[in-house]
UniProtKB/TrEMBL annotation:
InterPro entries documented for this protein: Fosfomycin_Res_Enzymes, Glyas_Bleomycin-R_OHBP_Dase, Glyas_Fos-R_dOase_dom, Glyoxalase_1_CS, VOC_core
Superkingdom: Bacteria
Protein name: Catechol 2,3-dioxygenase-like lactoylglutathione lyase family enzyme
CDD domains named in the record: VOC (cd06587)
Gene Ontology MF, one: dioxygenase activity
Residue span, VOC domain: 2-126
Lineage start: Bacteria, Bacillati, Actinomycetota, Actinomycetes, Kitasatosporales
Keyword tRNA processing belongs to the record: no
Swiss-Prot/TrEMBL keywords: Dioxygenase, Lyase, Metal-binding, Oxidoreductase
Record-linked SUPFAM superfamilies: Glyoxalase/Bleomycin resistance protein/Dihydroxybiphenyl dioxygenase
Coiled coil: none
Amino acid sequence: MQTGHVGLNVTDVTRSIAFYREVFGLELAGEGTEADRRFAFLALDGKLLLTLWQQSKERFDTGTAGLHHLSFQVESLDEVRAAEERLRGLDAEFAYDGVVPHGEGAGSGGIFFTDPDGIRLEIYAPAGLEGTPAPVAAAPTCGFF
């Protein structure tokens, strides 16, 4: 079994389309533009990856049960750093400063940030951070502590 796609509720689908296309290089595969049925299908290399639904009135609330964070794996730390640079150009909010390992002693790691609605996101590489100290020694970095 594997995840087919992930659907996110957003407050402004137009703004979110622009964000996810800029940060992840996703392509717009389809959308609904009726005032009360706004949505978008975002794909990578023709495969549906993310759906956005304009069904929220408020930003993401970490105190509500549901999504904790959404994580995307890339091949290398260079790709992580390129995404970080794009995000800094968008004034994105980061949980930690720069590329960090997943935990103390881990070689994998990445960047942890939020989208325009406060949804917590991660872009990581599976290796390359061996010997780098973690920002939080007592818990996984992806905990957004």
